[in-house]
């Protein structure tokens, strides 16, 4: 069964610290993996998108990695800011446009001053 | 400004009263989709559309209808809403189903 699992479910860190969020998937075949940031009460916004041939992609202080062999991805946030408080959602796209996207349930990150 | 818009943003209704949530995008995207988001369950796809007049069921289509008569619009219809459809709804669009999706601001629905 195609699944995406994210860990931890929630995370609290202090401002300025780094953190890493995990995403494991069992989706096959695989087209791409995306990370979204969702502020409370708002729509998700894309952070990165990676195909199976890419193993790292950065967007400012956000760096995503992908290991297609072990089917794992991580999102690393450097020097966290209060505005990083949000839910981070991992989404995997199977092999064709007609296949349904597989969503993780997200990691809720809270950054405290 | 490139965007996905949804209306209304907030809606309180009663069981059985038909309602429509509109979604419109100005990016000439072919792919559009509706999701609902509930605590602990994440985003779940209701319906999606690959192009005009082409729609298909997502993971939780029961109780919902959609139509895609024009490329830019993809309304979500609840013919007879029930309390278990109380949720936060998002519309999204992209050029194809495999590319980055752009999400609308969400519609918070309460069915009494």
Per-chain topology:
The complex is a heterodimer of chains A (113) and B (112).
Chain A lengths: L3 E4 L2 E5 L4 E7 L4 E9 L6 E7 L4 E4 L2 E6 L4 E6 L8 E9 L7 E2 L3 E6 L1
Parallel strand pairs in A: 2-11
Antiparallel strand pairs in A: 1-3, 3-8, 4-5, 4-9, 6-7, 7-8, 9-10, 9-11
Chain B lengths: L3 E4 L2 E4 L5 E7 L5 E8 L3 E10 L2 E4 L7 E2 L9 E3 L8 E8 L7 E2 L3 E5 L1
Parallel strand pairs in B: 2-11
Antiparallel strand pairs in B: 1-3, 3-8, 4-5, 4-9, 5-6, 7-8, 9-10, 9-11
Description:
- The complex is a heterodimer of chains A (113) and B (112).
- Chain A is mainly β and 113 residues long.
- The radius of gyration of chain A is 14 Å and the shape is globular.
- Chain A starts with a strand and ends with a strand.
- Chain A contains no helices and eleven strands.
- In chain A, the strands form two sheets. In chain A, strands 2, 4, 5, 9, 10 and 11 form a six-stranded mixed beta sheet that branches. Chain A has a five-stranded antiparallel beta sheet with strand order 1-3-8-7-6, with no helix packed on it.
- Chain A has strands at 4-7, 10-14, 19-25, 30-38, 45-51, 56-59, 62-67, 72-77, 86-94, 102-103, 107-112.
- With 112 residues, chain B is mostly beta strands.
- In chain B, strands 2, 4, 5, 6, 9, 10 and 11 form a seven-stranded mixed beta sheet that branches. A four-stranded antiparallel beta sheet of chain B has the order 1-3-8-7, with no helix packed on it.
- In chain B, strand 5 and strand 6 (54-57) form a beta hairpin.
- Chains A and B meet through strand 4 and strand 5 of A and strand 5, strand 9 and strand 10 of B.
List keywords for this structure.
heterodimer, A: 113 residues, mainly beta, 6-stranded mixed β-sheet, 5-stranded antiparallel β-sheet, 11 strands, B: 112 residues, 7-stranded mixed β-sheet, 4-stranded antiparallel β-sheet, 0% helix, globular
